[in-house]
């Protein structure tokens, strides 16, 4: 097998933990003997638990010495919730480390490779680097910007509508699409909606159709107008963060803060809108590494206008509802000329019976 083939196996191992490692990255490791035999496999299961290299070496047992470790991310060199993997690899007698991506964490950032080389371990970098960076797009973004990775998701008709003029949107997408949406919720740290979504739909914003953790529920309501009886405040199934502005009713804020699993965050307003940049900075400091934005239209528009979206998931259903006043998928200011349009790259297309999912990352200039 080639280095690329061993690394592909390591990437597949890392993927098994998607949705469980935050705020840590996804990492997989394969241990290969000098004869080319895979003797150990491991991946990082959850933050605070052993890293991929440790699990792979445990799997390899007494066959570690003189072997090569294929790992999807630069081995850590610092003490965190666990000890440094570099030292464990060196102590075990690993002869060579082949890594896919460099770790942007300032506590690592090349120090892992330097420590390995210092101890006489051969280091090869950049094998399937593009695939490894994309796999950890959330961690890479959060670590380099301090802000959570933002994915925008919506379901629309063929004519680009997400609801009727009276707010009816159940259901545009089919059951399989909705199940996949719940999977997406399970792999992001938080889900964000605007007040109109809560007022019109009274959603739970939880994971019910698949196994997985419930995300933090974030609701934007600049004047704190949502009634206290809504599910996101009362069902106790997940934590809820109500984001409001400085003009919000103080008594209402106080009442919300008394509810179990509900917190209120007041952020400044800019041009009459909540300052999303301040919100994202705050979330990043709280180790919220990713947010799934589920609208509605004006929320989508605000995030796009401020160039805050990193990935888009769009479910397209084979139906049309027409109507110039029916709600389009993205509001806000939008582009004045085509040169200002938002373009996706690395586009992937999946089908869920008759629905089509288009996803891709936002191109940056």
Write the layout of secondary structure elements.
Elements: H1 3-15, E1 28-32, E2 38-43, H2 52-60, E3 68-73, H3 85-92, E4 96-101, H4 111-118, E5 122-124, H5 129-135, H6 137-145, E6 149-156, E7 161-163, H7 175-187, E8 190-194, H8 195-201, E9 216-220, H9 231-234, E10 240-244, H10 250-257, E11 262-266, E12 269-270, E13 273-274, H11 276-285, E14 290-293, H12 297-305, E15 311-316, E16 327-328, E17 344-352, E18 355-362
Parallel strand pairs: 3-4, 4-5, 6-14, 6-15, 8-9, 8-14, 9-10, 10-11
Antiparallel strand pairs: 1-2, 1-3, 7-16, 12-13, 15-18, 17-18
Helix pairs in contact: 3-4
Quick description:
The protein is α/β, with parallel strands linked by helices. It has helices spanning 3-15, 52-60, 85-92, 111-118, 129-135, 137-145, 175-187, 195-201, 231-234, 250-257, 276-285, 297-305; strands at 28-32, 38-43, 68-73, 96-101, 122-124, 149-156, 161-163, 190-194, 216-220, 240-244, 262-266, 269-270, 273-274, 290-293, 311-316, 327-328, 344-352, 355-362.
């Amino acid at each position: 097998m080639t280095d690329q083939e061993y690394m592909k196996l390591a990437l597949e191992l890392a993927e098994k933990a998607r949705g469980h490692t935050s705020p840590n990255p996804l990492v997989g490791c394969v241990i290969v003997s000098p004869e080319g035999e895979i003797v150990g496999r491991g991946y990082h299961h959850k933050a605070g638990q052993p890293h991929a290299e440790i699990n792979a070496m445990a799997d390899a047992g007494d066959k570690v010495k003189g072997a090569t470790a294929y790992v999807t991310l630069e081995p850590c060199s610092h003490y965190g919730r666990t000890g440094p993997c570099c030292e464990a690899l060196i102590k075990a007698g690993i002869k060579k480390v082949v890594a896919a991506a460099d770790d942007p964490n300032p506590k690592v950032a090349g120090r892992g490779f330097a420590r390995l080389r210092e101890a006489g371990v051969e280091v090869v970098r950049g094998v399937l680097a593009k695939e490894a960076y994309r796999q950890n797009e959330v961690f890479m973004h959060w670590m380099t910007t301090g802000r959570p990775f933002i994915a925008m998701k919506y379901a629309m008709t063929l004519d680009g509508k997400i609801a009727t003029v009276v707010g009816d949107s159940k259901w545009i997408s089919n059951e399989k699409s909705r199940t996949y949406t719940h999977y997406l919720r399970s792999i992001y740290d938080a889900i964000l909606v605007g007040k109109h979504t809560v007022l019109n739909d009274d959603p739970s914003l939880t994971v019910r159709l698949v196994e997985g953790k419930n995300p933090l529920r974030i609701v934007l309501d600049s004047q704190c107008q949502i009634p206290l009886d809504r599910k996101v405040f009362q069902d106790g199934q997940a934590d809820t963060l109500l984001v409001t502005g400085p003009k919000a009713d103080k008594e209402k804020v106080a009442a919300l803060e008394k509810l179990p699993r509900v917190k209120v965050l007041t952020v400044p307003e800019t041009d009459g809108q909540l300052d999303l940049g301040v919100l994202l900075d705050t979330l990043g400091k709280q180790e919220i590494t990713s947010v799934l934005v589920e609208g509605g239209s004006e929320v989508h528009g605000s995030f796009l206008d401020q160039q805050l979206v990193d990935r888009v998931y769009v479910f397209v259903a084979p139906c049309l509802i027409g109507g110039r006043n029916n709600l389009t998928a993205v509001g806000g200011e939008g582009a004045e000329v085509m040169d200002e349009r938002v373009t996706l790259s690395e586009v992937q297309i999946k089908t869920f019976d008759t629905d089509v999912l288009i996803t891709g990352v936002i191109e940056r200039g």
